Fold this sequence. Notes:
This protein is α/β, with parallel strands linked by helices and 315 residues long. Helices cover 26% and strands 25% of the residues.
Amino acid sequence: MRRIKNIIFMGTPQFAVPTLKALVENKFIPKLVITQPDKEKGRGRKKSFSQVKEIAIEHNLRILQPEKINTNSIRKKIQDINPDIIITAAYGKILGRKILAIPRLGCINLHPSLLPKYRGPSPINWALFKGEKLTGNTVYFMNEQMDAGDIILQKKIPILPTENYGSLITKMSEEGANDVLKAISLIDTEYVRKISQDHSKASYTKLLDNNICRIDWTKSALEINNLIRGLAPYPAAFSELEGMKIKILTAQVIDAKKFNPGEIINVKKNIGFTVSTGSKSLLITEIKPQGKRKMTAYSYSLGHALIGKKFDNAK
C-alpha cells in the first residue's frame, strides 16, 4: 500500500519535464505544480510559459507561479495540501526551512551532477567546461544548505566526446526521471538508506553570464572547445568578428601551424575554417552569425574573405 499520496512538484525548464511526465504516468499525480512565473519574450513581449507549466496544463494539474516561494501565503497554500513529499527538479528557487519542514516524508531534489561535485546552478554546463568524462544524477533529501543533503541514490552517466549541453541535458533529464521514481519507491517502502555527502570534497558552480560565454582565444583549443560544447546549442559560446557577434556551435581540436590567438588561418572546403588559439587550433564547423540562422562555417566563408581576419580577443 502506498504511503505517498499527496505530492507537490516544483520545476521549471526542460530538465524537469521528463520527471513530471514520469510521475503522472506512474500515478503519482501531483496535487500542485509550482513553477516560475510566465515571462515576456520577443519583440511583441508575448507571455511564454515554462515548459513544466505546459505539461501541467496538458494534464489538468493545479498550478502555482509565485514570484517568491518563501512567503507566509505560499507556505499556507502548501500546508493546506498536507503533502507527503515535495519533489523538485530545476525549480530555480531555494526552499526555506519552514517549507522544508512541511512534508512528513521530506523534500527531495534531482540534481544533475555527482554530488558533492558541482553544487549550485548549471552543473551540466560546468561538467562540460571542465572536460569531465563522467557525470551523473543525484537524488537527495533537501536541507537548508545548497545541494548538501543526504543522498538517496546516485547514478553515473558517461559524457561522450561528441556530446554537447543540448544532447547531455536530454539524456540526463530522461534518466533522472527514472531516478526520481526509484527514490520515491525506496521512500515509499521505507527501504531508503540516507548517505551523507563528504562536504570536504564539495565544489561549486556559478550562474552563466555573458562573460563566461565569451571566448578567450588565448586559451587552449581544448579549453575553448569544452566551452563551446558546454554552451551549445544555447546560449552558445561567442566571439566578435569585424563587429559582428558570431555564436560558435560546433568545432574540433586540430594540430596546425601557430598564429596569433583568434586569427583565422585557413578555410577547409565543405567543412569550415580554422582559428589559431593559445595552444593548437580549432576547426570551426557550425556557427550562428548575429541576426542570421544557424549555418555551416564553410557556407559563411563563401561570402566573406576570412583568412587573416582576427576574432575579438577581449575578455
